[in-house]
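To the team - nicotinamide-adenine-dinucleotide complex, inputs and output below.
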Amino acid sequence: MAHTKKKIGLIGGGQIGGNLALLAVQKQLGDVVLYDIPVAEGLVKGKALDINQLSAVDGYDCRVTGSTDWKDVAGSDVVIITAGVPRKPGMSREDLLDVNLKIMRDVAANIKQHCPNAFVINVANPLDAMVFALHKIAGLPKNMVVGMAGVLDTSRFKCFVAEALGCSIRDVEALVLGGHGDDMVPLVRHSTVGGVPLTQLIAKDKLDAIIDRTRKGGAELVNLYKTGSAYFAPASSSIAMAESYLLDRKRVLPAAALLEGQYGLSGYFFGVPTQIGAGGVEKIIDVQLNDAEKAELNKSFESVKKTVGEVKL
Ligand SMILES: NC(=O)c1ccc[n+]([C@@H]2O[C@H](COP(=O)([O-])OP(=O)(O)OC[C@H]3O[C@@H](n4cnc5c(N)ncnc54)[C@H](O)[C@@H]3O)[C@@H](O)[C@H]2O)c1
Ligand SMILES: O=C(O)C[C@H](O)C(=O)O
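Output:
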């Protein structure tokens, strides 16, 4: 019988990779191949077995295979890359550039060979530079390559707003643009709670504190965990993007996409609102910004350009 279930290739079976596999199965998005390097064979085989046994309890019909062979990943509809080292307290994401670029060279070359038709979501840091390298090395069409950061950064912002107001997180709408770094741009003017502008609900000093906490949200988790970085929320955020592609939901989600003139910027992957559906990144939405917002976005873009400038392919 022909294989009709979707196939999800997860590259990296660490903290985020394992959670991605669990979520993909729980949402019954498709069969999963959890790939890692040979030294981590027991880890991916163990996680696969453990999740498959949970499936029996809960009645999920999607299977996870733990593998160290790219041939098993071949033909995936979606590939999510979490292969890479997480930072430790005191480090910036940019400090990971050399070590993670080495890993990305290997991963991107294998994607080119084994999964040329997949929608590929990169999660590894430094995010915007890694997705740039991935796109160059794998040679995939621009609409089929994205970086996950904006969904997570926006989700953090919404979480802090809901906490500050004591309101349901469901009614918080917000948008964080820019690179996945400390100068990301939470767009307060475009954020609402139940349709009411956020600026009417939270005093400026409190809002500034929320913006600051959002910008440093990754480091807050790194300082708590001490041996690595966030993994539950990053996994959920990546699955939201994969799901929108696989189910053609056409959700509008912030993602690092290749800019070609939007926001007056070009040539780099950068966090902007995108529409993700069966065509991958089907649209990039050019939000109208005022001068102050534009200046903040340009600053964030310069930071991304600087890091990408250090990428030697
Ligand atoms: N974009 C974001 O918002 C975001 C959020 C959290 C973490 N991250 C990044 O995601 C990455 C992974 O984080 P984690 O917590 O899962 O780390 P982790 O250390 O738990 O897992 C990483 C896995 O990658 C594997 N790996 C190494 N080289 C590989 C290769 N060549 N091919 C396949 N797998 C390989 C390792 O063996 C390890 O199992 C880090 O770079 C981290 O900074 C990004
Ligand atoms: O902060 C990190 O190093 C991991 C990730 O980018 C995050 O924002 O949680």
